[in-house]
Amino acid sequence: MNMKTNEPNQKAEQLDVHSTSNENEKLTTNQGLKINNNQDSLKAGERGPSLLEDFILREKITHFDHERIPERVVHARGSGAHGVFKLNKSLVGYTKARFLTELGKETPVFVRFSTVTGSKGSTDLARDVRGFAIKFYTEEGNYDLVANNMPVFFIQDAIKFPDLIHAVKPEPDNEIPQAASAHDTFWDFISLMPESMHMIMWVMSDRAIPRSLRMMEGFGVHSFKFINEEGKVHFVKFHFKPRLGVHSVAWNEAQILSGVDSDFHKRDLWEAIENGDYPEWDFGVQLIPEEDEHQFDFDLLDPTKLIPEEEVPVEIVGTLTLNRNPDNFFAETEQVAFHPGHIIPGIDFTNDPLLQGRLFSYTDTQLSRLGSPNFHEIPINRSINTIHNNQRDGHMRQQIVKGKSSYEPNSIGGGCPFQAMMSEGGFASQQERISGEKVRERSKSFVDHYSQAKLFYNSQSTPEKLHLQNALIFELSKVTRPEIRERMVGQLGYVDMFLAWRVAEKVGVEVKKLEWPNQSLPADSNIIELQSEEREPKIKISEALSMQNTVKNTIQSRKIGFIIAGGVDAGAINDLKVKLEGEGARVELIAPSLAPVRTNDGSTLLPKHSLTSTASVCFDALYIAGGEDAVKELLIPENRHLVLHFINEAYKHCKAIYFGTDTQVLYHNSNVSAKQHDDPGIITWEDGDQTGKFINAIAKHRVWDHEMERNA
Ligand code: HDD
Fold first, then answer.
1. What pTM value is reported for the model?
2. Polar residues: which segments have biased composition (predicted)?
3. Which of 443, 559, 610, 623 is the most buried (most CB within 10 A)?
4. Pick from 548, 571, 601: which residue ends a domain?
5. Phi, psi of 78 (to 5 degrees)
6. Could you tell me the distance, in angstroms and rounded to a whole number, from the CA of residue 28 to the centre of ligand 1?
7. pLDDT tens for residues 561-613?
8. What range does the domain containing 561 cover?
9. 232, 448 contact by CB (below 8 A)
10. From 6, 9, 75, 381, active-site residue
11. Backbone torsions φ then ψ of 34, nearest 5 degrees
12. Are residues 559 and 608 in the same domain?
């Protein structure tokens, strides 16, 4: 299959069997009966009561009444897409998983991205972790990599997961706030859980407000195991690196987008795929021989730690491409059921206590969400391998299994289905030697909670550090209890004193060394046991941790807004549009109204948006199209403030803005004119054709460096 098309693959063909279209069909009941009146219920006289006998009404209403299923307890809001994984470099020395060993092999996938905290109908722009769950439909069975866009997690042991989620979800008495961590219960919990400090650095960084789901990394988080044909074991960490680089929006932009287009990420993914801008990621692995397990200054089983790429480089071995939107959101994106326990020969679990708990949780949650142990029969969840076992019955069973025997061993059924030998693809867990006391304890090797938080913070560029500080200030300013703010600032002091001091100053508390047990805690609190040793990170800076180092020289799929009005310079618009689209960008026209716009050469342009129906936050860059008459129209009172708002907001969010000819008045009346230094993001009429400069500025994503001055 050509990865740049959405030609059918084995999974698409399987889904096709279960798909239907209403085109040119007659309306029927669920029993296949053709309906001849879908407007009126059956009544005793035209003004009389409806009759119980009306099975058509009853069926329609009953089905409607039961259309909703429980949303996911976490990761409720999601967007999905079909695609393909292609192996470019064989991992045959490390694993026997065939989709990772057969060079050039293409495996169908379904990916679901999600926010974690908010409800299904909440905003895409919440400051939150993003889920990045991938179902590989391999010939050996389904393999699910249930990943996130951050490489570490808040907690070290699954037993704390319900506490974490209860703390971050809306508070239980008033169900406020939705899709937000900026409230007392979250920071209360976090301030008492030093192990979360590394993850807090990630969540307070701009990684938590992506520009696009297509511009995020993916991480398997845990160490997993690879096992090769000879039984040799390697620890492995999984990485997905987006071909478009890792980019974010500004926090203020995210807040505005939540109102202007709360489906911003969903729409962006959908439109990109519809436009043929297929999102792509390089898939890579960090490999550690089993015997090197203890070579690190942290524990490979601790999910609050990453392996710096300076210590173990990421080897790129494959490409993930998303190339087809689902046909039906509910049937596919809502009903897809992931589980880190869905593995195949050549891949195995580690004893990471967070992963071990997850292995229970995912099937369990599907039972309540999808309602039956037969959720594997829902088309999106079906393996492309056929299923043969003696599991039977249950709600909504689809498969009709022939034969008399549903047990094993049997002679009546000829002994079928047979166990598979390992040489036939039969799965066998790694024969790992385990011995130990039965204890309810945390390993001492998990006790360092701050060194990688420091590593992350130190690795950020100056604008990234500033954003992180401001995120903490925003979040903690919403915390009503001063003792929680104080405890939190105390935690930050172990990461970076300047960070703690700056946040403390803004949230009205002092930086104090934490005394444990803290007076605000119950006397018998075991919190002291969860405290950390203070260690310095082995390496001081890791380049891969800063988004700034991922910038790629491309404007592929970037959305550029052209502000136009009557009499606009058609030649300049067409010229720029052709050049930008030639580089893969998307141009959308914005005018005072949706009425066709007459240009200076008599042609007409059809705007996609009006100045009131969209906002600068929906675009990566702006072009203020020139032409004397057009500028005059933009300057009339009812347009003027709207255009200036567009420009000022784009400028505030550090976007590239190109002022066309005759737009001097707009420039001078906007905040842009106050700039004191040369700004690579601002391109003006004076410079002649500056398309190249404009393209370069867009490719840099934002001019964050000028933020202090721009927002002054
Ligand atoms: Fe989880 C969903 C990722 C820890 C329990 N999780 C879920 C999804 C993702 C993750 C991407 C959404 C899947 C989808 O799109 O349907 N979860 C993670 C990662 C974790 C993690 C990367 C840590 C490394 N999760 C975690 C723990 C537990 C859970 C420790 C419980 C002990 N997660 C669940 C769940 C969900 C879920 C309750 C809700 C919906 C679902 O499973 O299918 O079982």
1. 0.96
2. 1-41
3. 623
4. 548
5. -145, 165
6. 39
7. 999 999 999 999 999 999 999 999 999 999 999 999 999 999 999 999 999 99
8. 553-710
9. no
10. 75
11. -70, 135
12. yes
